[in-house]
Specification:
2 helices; single chain; 30 residues; mainly alpha; elongated
């Protein structure tokens, strides 16, 4: 997970990262 975040750090803006993270968390919860 850490490597993925570092890899896409400069490419994706925080808003996109937040949306993806929330989406990922929702998938885990469901």
């Amino acid at each position: 997970m850490g490597q993925v975040m570092q890899k896409s750090k400069g490419q994706a803006n925080p808003q996109q990262a937040s949306e993806l993270l929330i989406k990922h968390l929702n998938d885990i919860i469901d």
